[in-house]
Design a protein that fits this description.
single chain; transmembrane helix; elongated; transmembrane; membrane; about 120 residues
């Protein structure tokens, strides 16, 4: 054994905070947060992902429909047309989903502020 102090953590009881409450005590969420104060904001990532997936599906359907028409018989590379239509449609629907998320966020903010001002 050495004479230097040990750097290992002590395993005694943890000290309580100044209020005398045990910091490890279980706290229920409804005891801490008033449900009227919770703001329901949209999740932007999910809105954008749904918009992108919907756009890709619609774009592929439109692209394959456009390539399958009799007027498209002279296309040299129909896959390029499908890819361009899919990319364009995916971009548009992703932007539209982002706009919907922004509008939903503004609406939730208005409701939240209106509820707070009533108290």
């Amino acid at each position: 054994m050495s004479d230097s102090p040990s750097t290992a953590p002590q395993t005694g009881p943890e000290p309580e905070d100044r209020t005398g409450a045990d910091p490890r005590a279980e706290v229920h969420l409804h005891d801490v947060v008033d449900p009227a104060d919770v703001r329901r904001a949209p999740r932007y990532g999910r809105f954008l992902m749904v918009g992108a997936v919907v756009g890709i599906v619609i774009g592929l359907a439109l692209g394959w429909y456009a390539v399958g028409t009799p007027e498209a018989a002279g296309m040299l590379k129909p896959g390029v047309y499908v890819a361009v239509i899919t990319a364009f449609t995916g971009t548009l629907t992703t932007l539209a989903a982002g706009l919907l998320a922004i509008l939903a966020d503004r609406r939730s903010l208005r409701r939240y502020e209106r509820a707070r001002s009533r108290r």
